[in-house]
Design a protein that fits this description.
The longest helix is centred in the N-terminal third of the chain and has 12 residues, at 11-22. Strand 6 (120-126) and strand 7 form a beta hairpin. The protein is α/β, with parallel strands linked by helices. The chain has helices spanning 11-22, 41-51, 87-94, 143-148, and strands spanning 2-8, 30-34, 66-69, 76-80, 102-106, 120-126, 132-138. It contains 4 helices and 7 strands; from the N terminus they run βαβαββαβββα. The protein is globular, with a radius of gyration of 14 Å. It has a 7-stranded mixed β-sheet.
């Protein structure tokens, strides 16, 4: 498993990291997003959307559970599983894994037992001010794709 860690100082830098990551994702990619409230999970999802070519406004799916976005080179399924209510909600979310898009799951630890082994885990930790540390654990990344993602470009 490869890990790449970035220290960013603004939401724009968070989006830039995610955009570069999104540009190398393929159909069926599953990404988990973990971090405290207001850590930048939705900001990261916005950058991923740009990376897969989606120009829609991306906002938090907190109350919808899943928001679907089309129009890019891949569809994006943005999920927030914080408020899942029972097995039927979990099954509903899991059906998206086979739809040929990119699944981005906020609060994924709530369904950890149901996540595929082949996924990318992203952890965002708040630092002082606007600073964040973003760690990407690439379970299905090729090493050269990890090297492609960096904040200084």
């Amino acid at each position: 498993m490869k890990t790449k860690t970035f220290t960013v100082h603004s939401p724009a830098e968070t989006m830039a990291i995610a955009q570069k990551l999104g540009s190398v994702l393929s159909a069926g990619s599953v990404l988990t997003l973990e971090g405290d409230l207001a850590a930048g999970k939705t900001t990261f999802a916005k950058g991923l959307a740009v990376g897969v070519g989606i120009s829609d406004v991306i906002d938090s799916p907190t109350f919808a559970i899943v928001k679907e976005y089309d129009g890019g080179r891949l569809p994006l399924f943005h999920m927030d599983v914080y408020r899942l209510d029972g097995d039927s909600d979990v099954e509903f979310v899991l059906e998206y894994f086979d739809r040929g898009g990119v699944c981005v799951i906020e609060w994924a630890s709530n369904i950890a037992a149901d996540l595929p082994d082949q996924r990318i885990d992203v952890r965002i930790e708040r630092l002082d001010g606007e600073g964040r540390e973003i760690s990407i654990f690439g379970f299905n990344f090729k090493e050269e794709e990890m090297d492609h993602v960096n904040v200084s470009d």
